[in-house]
Design goal:
- FAD binds at residues 289, 302-306, 463-465.
- Residues 5-164 form the Photolyase/cryptochrome alpha/beta domain.
- Pfam families: DNA_photolyase, FAD_binding_7.
- The chain has 648 residues and is an alpha/beta fold.
- It folds into three domains: 1-161, 3-Layer(aba) Sandwich (Rossmann fold), CATH 3.40.50.620; 162-202 and 270-373, Serine Threonine Protein Phosphatase 5, Tetratricopeptide repeat; 390-621, DNA Cyclobutane Dipyrimidine Photolyase, subunit A, domain 3, CATH 1.10.579.10.
- It is 40% helix and 6% strand.
- It has 26 helices and seven strands.
- The chain has helices at residues 21-28, 79-98, 110-118, 136-152, 183-190, 231-239, 270-282, 285-292, 306-310, 316-328, 346-368, 397-409, 415-427, 432-445, 450-460, 466-477, 491-498, 503-508, 518-522, 530-535, 542-545, 573-579, 592-598, 603-607, 610-616, 642-647, and strands at residues 6-11, 36-44, 104-108, 125-131, 155-159, 550-553, 586-589.
- A five-stranded parallel sheet has the order 3-2-1-4-5, covered by helices on one side. Strands 6-7 form a two-stranded antiparallel sheet.
- Helix 8 (285-292) packs across helix 11 and helix 15 runs antiparallel to helix 16.
- It is globular, with a radius of gyration of 25 Å.
- The termini are far apart.
- Flavin-adenine dinucleotide binds at residues 293, 302-306, 309-310, 351, 354-355, 357-358, 361, 431-432, 435-436, 439, 457, 461, 463-465, 468-469, 472-473, 476, 626-628.
């Protein structure tokens, strides 16, 4: 390519064409002088297992260590996200081709791949642009790319990530250390949220980007890897190592639940993200969001935009812009939908609020860096968690490992927790309400190292996002930015509040479908009818007969049913506060693990045993927990409320 001057655009978690500042700048600012644009996506070998890209029959081995987590040894990217990512990358390719460009796909360490491309004489690469990220590994990638560029005499530009609600340029502080440690303080600095986000960038017209370089000019993938030429091939390569029988995701994984429908059946990609957003507005689901977001079942109780946001298939400001068009009545496509043209409603206001939580979690990551992964969290709380290497007295490494396995496999004996864990395993998704309970159960009831839970979520979640995942785990574990470090969820009360008919738990634990009493579904050990247990095949099941935790939950009088809107939506946020105090007392403990853990050193000693706390706090409100819970506040859009303050 004589006289060429090529720019490499290294895509990361910005897998979209629209509202993309890098592409926009290439179209608008012609002074850059680049004749060619080489868009590339690298599947990063340290975060995702790439050995499946070695062709079948090859004797060669991957030069990289397995992409496994540090504490639990789980695959860092499990099958659900691997598939979603493949679809998103493939859709990016489609989107780029539509504007007359294209996408090269590679695997390996980002720095190495870029270094290899910089060496191409034919391409004459003079610059590498990429979007900056917060993570420690991601920053290391950026340093590697900068080094490679410096050695090759090419410019390296790290762009600001613009997939958040409020742009970095509009933050009221420059130094991340000035970020308040309480979300509400931050929120108040940013309100009114409706006025803050910047406008979406103009659409990229066809054939306005610098020329896409020919295949022959681009260095090929380094061996032993080969890049498939179809989406199916890409999925196969990513899934192959994750589905090997000798390396299961977890021992004895939960069986597939017949008849259960995924709450997240969506495919990855920019186009799918916008279809989803359009559906939320045109169906009215967005306007109902405030009262449905705590639902456990079904696709429409919450937005299910998280996985698209995590990969940058869509930006928060695009979501905001569509909501504005709905609120202001400027998009006739939605004119028949109730609330059209009537300004911000509870649903759209609440969604902005949640998107701000996401911004906040990312800023916490920026402020605290490696503390995101530290057992004592942002707070630096003096905690020693139980783990296989730190079993409680009277227990062994093997017995703690078994407890963890039961947690992962959804066989703790606690209905809500097991249902969520099985749903997660089967589908890659579980609701925010369920996540809060799962995280609370692992850390506040079992006192097990929260990082094991965070790593498992990293492996299993389709919407895994480093800041939101690790930040929320810390928050619920009591070592993060939750000013109330005594927050403790009672998973039985929560099940009554949000799954009053036990519909959710029965969906994901088919063994319990024959039970009619919700209390028995929530804790199968409480079913005393021997004949029924026998008939349902519950006799002899360890998780039924020896649950990890027993909670005596007495219903003082007929438990009120929460307001339920929409099919399959279990509970509104309001139920939480209304019901508080109407249920009887709770007492936790009773299991062998609870007894052993009661005398444990470390976490339990520092924080008081679950049994005593659970007992004395039986009537306490369990408002929220785990960043981003606005449920039940009855908050008018854009206004603060006491409960919200209480939550944060
Ligand atoms: C232990 C734990 C782990 C979590 N891990 C992740 C994760 O890896 N990735 C992730 O995106 N979210 C995570 N969350 C936050 C939240 O559970 C999910 O964002 C939400 O369930 C995704 O579903 P949705 O898109 O339908 O959410 P909606 O209720 O529709 O919310 C809209 C958007 O707001 C953002 N949001 C909502 N709640 C939060 C929150 N608490 N923190 C940060 N952002 C929020 C998300 O981007 C979400 O898509 C976690 C929460 C907990 C308690």
């Amino acid at each position: 390519m004589p006289n060429s001057k090529t720019l490499v655009y290294l895509f990361r978690r910005d897998l979209r064409v629209a509202d993309n500042p890098i592409l926009q700048s290439l179209v608008k600012e012609k002074a850059h002088g680049y004749t060619h644009l080489l868009p590339i996506y690298v599947f990063p070998a340290q975060q995702l297992e790439v050995s499946g890209f070695i062709p079948l029959g090859s004797e060669e081995k991957s030069p990289y260590p397995e992409a496994r987590s540090r504490v639990g040894g789980f695959w860092r990217c499990g099958p659900h996200r691997a598939k979603f990512l493949a679809e998103s990358v493939w859709d990016l390719k489609r989107g780029l081709e539509e504007v007359g460009s294209g996408l090269y796909i590679r695997v390996g360490m980002v720095g190495e791949v870029i270094d290899n491309i910089l060496k191409s004489k034919e391409l004459n690469v003079k610059g590498v642009w990429m979007t900056g990220e917060e993570g420690v590994e991601e920053k290391a990638e950026e340093r590697d790319v900068k080094r490679a560029c410096a050695a090759a005499g090419a410019e390296c530009v790290i762009w600001v990530d613009e997939k958040y609600l409020i742009d970095d340029a509009d933050l009221p502080f420059k130094d991340p250390q000035e970020l308040p440690d309480v979300f509400t303080t931050y929120r108040k600095m940013m309100e009114p949220l409706r006025n803050k986000p910047r406008a979406v960038l103009p659409t990229i017209a066809k054939n306005t980007l610098p020329t896409f370089p020919s295949k022959s000019s681009v260095p090929s993938q380094h061996p032993p890897f080969v890049i498939p030429t179809s989406l199916q091939g890409l999925k196969n390569a990513l899934l192959k190592p994750l589905t090997q029988v000798n390396a299961p995701l977890t021992k004895k994984p939960p069986p597939y639940c017949k008849g259960a429908q995924s709450a997240h059946p969506f495919k990855g990609g920019e186009m799918q993200a916008h279809n989803r957003l359009n559906h939320l507005l045109s169906s009215g689901a967005m306007s109902n969001y405030h009262s449905t977001r705590n639902g456990l079942l079904g696709t429409d109780c919450s937005s299910k935009l998280s996985a698209y946001l995590a990969l940058g298939c869509i930006t928060s400001r695009q979501i905001h812009a569509s909501m504005l068009a709905f609120e202001d009545g400027t998009n006739p496509a939605w004119s028949a939908v109730p609330g059209y043209g009537e300004g911000e409603n509870e649903g759209t206001g609440s969604l902005r609020f949640e998107l701000l939580w996401r911004d906040y979690m990312r800023l916490c990551n920026r402020k605290y860096g490696t503390k995101l992964f530290h057992p004592s969290g942002f707070k630096g709380s003096p905690t020693t968690w139980l783990s296989p290497s730190n079993p409680p007295e009277g227990q062994t490494t093997a017995s703690v490992t078994e407890i963890i396995q039961r947690f992962l496999n959804g066989t703790t004996g606690m209905g809500l927790i097991d249902a969520s864990q099985r749903e997660l395993f089967q589908t890659g998704y579980t609701s925010n309400r369920a996540r809060q309970n799962v995280a609370s159960f692992l850390t506040k009831h079992l006192h097990i190292d929260w990082r094991i839970g965070a790593e498992w979520y990293e492996c299993m979640l389709v919407d895994y996002d480093q800041s939101s995942n690790w930040g929320n785990w810390q928050y619920v574990a009591g070592v993060g930015n939750d000013p109330r470090d005594t927050r403790n969820f009672n998973p039985v009360k929560q099940a009554f509040d949000y799954d009053p008919h036990a519909e959710y738990v029965k969906t994901w634990i088919p063994e319990l479908r024959g039970l009619s009493e919700p209390s028995e579904v929530f804790q199968a050990w409480t079913c005393k009818d021997e004949e029924l247990r026998e008939r349902l095949g519950l006799r002899g099941l360890k998780w039924v007969e020896e649950p990890l935790e027993k909670i005596d939950f007495v219903i003082a009088r007929k438990y009120p049913r929460p307001r339920v809107r929409g099919k399959g939506n279990a509970g509104s946020g309001g139920a939480d506060s209304r019901d508080a105090g109407r249920s009887g007392g709770t007492k936790t403990g009773g299991s062998e693990w609870a007894r052993a853990r009661g005398s444990a050193r470390g976490a339990s000693a520092n924080r008081g045993s679950a049994s005593s706390r659970g007992h004395s706090r039986g009537h306490r409100r369990e408002k929220g927990g785990g960043g981003g819970d606005s449920g039940g506040s009855g908050r008018k859009a854009g206004q603060a409320s006491e409960k919200e303050a209480e939550h944060s």
